[in-house]
């Protein structure tokens, strides 16, 4: 029986493409309001995890539960309703080239046949959230890499999904833009109580996600705080994938103290 | 995997794709706007090359056959010869080959690029079925526009033949037109419309299939594009032979 405790749950999920084993009996859960940071080298099946959650691909074995629903055997039509609860931020943004920024963000609402006057305020609010109100009429090819990702985030947020999946949203960005993206993720985690899976291999992201949080002061301003030595954020957990297996699962402090040779190498190398 | 197995798998995948399109095409949402847009881009956009193709094909037919017809003293049937050749064979096939080169490749390249840049996945993640949104409108557009373009090709071809007959054979336009009219019977026209409908479907489905089965990034897009043109062209020629036989025995020489 699926518990309603987890927003996302993987139970012994296995997947192989031909001879290549991507995931081998992987199990983990993401609690409501929690951010799960999935790490691992390239080709270790990080993005595959997200595709499985969205039902874009199906596992060979095991069960996947999203928001209390076992989606493993859902067909494409049934998945469409599940996908409404999920926002996905793709690696390069995956914006539709033929549509303007406005139309990209409005896409989901138009598909749901929402009336045009209701669409505009939502689109503008989302673009304001990612600080891109000025780019509303631009085409995707006029945007920088960082802007494309932010539009991608705005598009994913339409419909206020309670689950957000990030597929290496900071890969290939400069540190400042990457931080902006991470701050957006923090805002969603701490202010909107969104559950998320954040796929990354950058230590800088891990640092920000694991040790910073955002609060709103009495005037409605956002303040980014550092957890310091006295407290410890518990709404962000980490898992490390290697050769189809979860080799680590826990908090950032536990990860830094881990003696696993691959994790040591990963942490030292990225530094 | 050897060639035969791969071929069979591809045929299976194309059949499945056709099945999904047919199932999706009658169920809402229908994306009628997208269908009209594709008709404009794929159909109306190809008008220029079809006009040129038709005109010169008709003209060269009249030119080449003129001397031979004169030898037998039957130059008065030039119009009929040009019109029959165009309606039965050259109009549908040349239009289809032109569309395969211009439109089929474009479909494969566009869908292929969308696939490798994760736009297809994004579409599914946002609750759209790409088969309905991308594949079905293109198929409907080509199935309707290919016959329309073929008719235009035939018409312009007959005019091209007329011009060549007047200029190079010194034939009277009334003789040419009267002879051409004899070729245009209902069964001829029907046969001449069945072919491009089938070809249009083939071009669209091959283009979509190749685009959506792209692997290997940007290089893969190039490969898919080339393959879509090659496969569609060969299929057009081969299916044309089979269809000609069927149309001949059912409609024209019953």
What does it look like?
The complex is a heterodimer of chains A (271) and B (254). Chain A has 271 residues and is an alpha/beta fold. Chain A is built from nine helices and twelve strands. Chain A has a six-stranded mixed sheet, with helices on both faces. In chain A, helix 6 (175-191) links the parallel strand 7 and strand 8 (195-199). In chain A, helix 3 (101-111) runs parallel beside helix 5, helix 4 crosses helix 5 (145-157) and helix 6 (175-191) runs parallel beside helix 7. Chain A is globular, with a radius of gyration of 18 Å. The model of chain A has no long low-confidence stretch (mean pLDDT 86). With 254 residues, chain B is mainly alpha-helical. Chain B is 87% helix and 0% strand. Chain B has helices at 3-25, 32-43, 47-71, 78-116, 119-125, 130-169, 173-183, 186-212, 217-252. Classes of the chains: A alpha/beta (271), B mainly alpha (254). At the A-B interface, helix 2 and helix 3 of A face helix 5 of B.
